[in-house]
Amino acid sequence: MSWSSALPKPIFVGRKKPLTTLQDARAYLLALPNNRQEDPEVQAACHALLLAAEGKGPMMFAEMALKRVVNGPVELRGTGGVGLT
């Protein structure tokens, strides 16, 4: 794979152009303020993107990590605790 590889689905970032490639995602993360870049979830997204671009990691992990940075953590609702341990 390479940085020009397409993400499985576009990731929408407010009113900006959606992130559609690994390169778009990389540019987005690098444009974050330095203190935000040091956050563990941003570091994890950078790592997952690098692995995907090098063909050493799944694209899905990169997409999930990037969505967490863009949208924040996902809160599970309505499960009633069923199936959770």
What is the tally of helical segments? 4
Main sheet, how many strands, which sense, barrel? 2 strands, antiparallel
How would you state the average pLDDT, rounded?
88
The CA-CA distance between the termini, in Å, is: 37 Å
Radius of gyration: 14 Å
Which spans have pLDDT < 50 for at least 5 consecutive residues? Answer: none
Measured by DSSP, the beta-strand proportion falls in 5-15%
The count of DSSP E runs of length 2 or more, i.e. the number of strands, is 2
Listing every helix as H and every strand as E from the N terminus to the C terminus, the arrangement reads EEHHHH
**How does the helix and strand content classify structurally?**
mainly alpha
State the shape.
globular
Q: Helix coverage percent of residues?
A: 40-55%
Name the strands of the widest sheet in spatial order: 1-2
Explain what you see.
This protein has 85 residues and is mainly α. The protein is built from four helices and two strands. It has a domain at 19-71. It has helices at 22-31, 34-37, 40-53, 59-71; strands at 6-11, 19-21. The protein has a two-stranded antiparallel sheet. Strand 1 and strand 2 form a beta hairpin. The model has no long low-confidence stretch (mean pLDDT 88).
Set out the fold topology.
Elements: E1 6-11, E2 19-21, H1 22-31, H2 34-37, H3 40-53, H4 59-71
Antiparallel strand pairs: 1-2
Helix pairs in contact: 1-3, 3-4
